[in-house]
Amino acid sequence: MKRERIHSAGPSITQLEIDTVTDAVTNGFYSHYRDYIEKFESAFAEYVGVKHAIATSSATTAMHLMVATADLGPGDEVIIPDLSWIATASVHTYAGAKPVFVDIEPDTWTMDPEKLKAAITPRTKAVMPVDLYGHAVDYDAIVPICREYGLTLISDSAPAVGTLLNGKSPARYADMAAYSFQGAKMMISGEGGMFVTDDDELFKRADQLVEDGRKPGTFWIEKIGYHYRMSNLTASLGYAQLQRVEELVAAKRQLFDWYHDRLGDIPGISMFKERPNCRANCSYPSIVLEGEFKTDRDGLRDELRNRKIDTRPIFPKMSQFPMFETVANPVTERIAETGINLPTAAYLDEEDVEDVCNEIKDILGV
Ligand SMILES: Cc1ncc(COP(=O)(O)O)c(C=O)c1O
To answer: Does residue 334 form part of some domain?
Structure first.
């Protein structure tokens, strides 16, 4: 292996990012203290094809902002997939609403529309599907269900910058959506997120809640809000990365193809299948071990770590955590117990992928 260590994730930073952040730290105060926030918000709204964007300190805060904007609270249920990062569940509990966990589709690991439909009760107020690992949710099926039952569709698109379904971003299907720019994501701002919506009224509400509930331009507080707006410095890095986002998506898709060429045909190893009409951003190349190998998922991860290759397990099933009631969701259980996210650091080239795949084959005995 030509590298001392292969990291599981990390960004691509060029002179453009360095120059832009340098400009923000040099000039981004006084009359210019919001310049990069405004530029980033309007460029991101344009990129995902909606009218409004609000830059936030993380996707988690953008998601809580969606929950607050939708006015969810005690007595309300929100249907979510059981496989995701905990923020997908915790933001509802912040508001006193109840997350209801449903199973995922076996190929794309996103919310199963049939399971969603079966979980709707008179208390259901909203649905939060997740474009997990950059795979688009089946919005063609989920949007009509939300319309039929009058449910607000708030999308956790945290990992899905650059993902498209029928040529449109997830944000175009949802009432509100949230994206993440945390350091392992498709494009990064350090920590950071974006709330997006096409709806003028929802935007107006969120725009007030994100800045402490104050009357715009004043210190007069009209309702209890949150201190969730992204800083100008952080926005400068996000704004620079956004200039390169299509290049970054192409690089991740190439990385995924390199892995697929080497591992995709091995019996007992499966990789996710792209939904028809979807451009997954492929930000996380994942494999699921379903065959008989020399070791299991955790054994493979441990031995890869010994060989200086970092990986991540697929997220655990959320409903098994102690604060929730465990729900039997067999597809989630299977993927969560057998899945690994392979290294996706931006510096990886084809030779690195070849090295990682050779080590995987050696450890598994294939
Ligand atoms: C599916 C999903 N939702 C939400 C988040 C939270 O994003 P952030 O770290 O920007 O709050 C993540 C981050 O990993 C995620 O993967």
So the answer is: yes
**Can you give the residue range of the structural domain that contains 341?**
246-364
173-220 pLDDT, tens per residue? 999 999 999 999 999 999 999 999 999 999 999 999 999 999 988 999
Instruction: Locate the ligand 1 atom nearest the alpha carbon of residue 180 and give its number.
Output: 10
Tell me the best of 180, 186, 228 to mutate to test the pocket of ligand 1, counting ligand atoms within 8 Å of each CB and taking the most. 180
Domain limit, last residue, from 184, 219, 243:
243
* Predicted model pTM: 0.98
Distance (angstroms) between ligand 1 centre and the Cα of 70 equals 20
Which residues, in sequence order, are bridge partners of residue 156?
130, 178
Q: What span, in angstroms and rounded, lies between the C-alpha atoms of 80 and 356?
A: 34
